[in-house]
Input
Amino acid sequence: MITPCRADPTIRRRRWVLAGLLGAALAALEACTVPRPAADSGLDLRGAPLILLGEVHDNAAQHALRVQALRELLDTGARPALLMEQFDREQQAALDAARTAPGASPASIIAAAGGSGWHWPHYEPFLALALQHGLVVIAANVSRTDVRRVIADGLAAHGFDAAVPEDLMALQVEALVAGHCGQLDASGARRLALAQVARDQFMARLLVRHAAGGAVLLAGNGHVRSDAGAPRWLPPAERARSRVIGLLESDADPPGRFDRVLRTEVQPRPDPCAALVPARPG
Output
């Protein structure tokens, strides 16, 4: 008579040991090879070829949401041009060369373009996605030199449209006065508003140029607001194919109109007006 293996306690113990070791090995293998799904960004960028994606420049939570949203869009197979306010148009040739160079990295692209003026760790993940998926990176800003020339000579002298609607100009002036903590008068704000208009017109031109293949613009909320920013300078056909998304902090009034608003917590920061507004006598 043959005794079944399950009746032998020694064999049972060996099986338990082997099963435990095998289970542990499988669990370790699964942990190494199966990525955890990332949380949904809450920002669906599908359905419009042109996306204008706003930001508060120093808000880390907003950048994280936007990176995830761009990743989700790229996972669908979309390959839009990535238009970035953080680069000036004079840097385009350097951007192209750095992006296509062997061993290109976000750091090498930033270094080639000058690498100053922004908190680049916020923007490196966007450049990493661009490199991973072969996106064209477009410099979407005009330089400070351009700005000074426009303020001095006017928009038309430097190839921009000087026919600025008065309601748009009034909104720009209002935003600039508020942004300077009330320390800028209306006439000074009107001069500075020309620079904002030049930036918005340039961004709109780039969106039109890349409309056929799709484009995502990363820029401050002031540039993407639909009532006074780049959308105001889009032709009707391109505006109809665009979506304007403002990312605001939870305590902020909307700085204009957007097709959609997403709110995040306030980024801790010093009061920007503290050094500008004189203290009242006690």
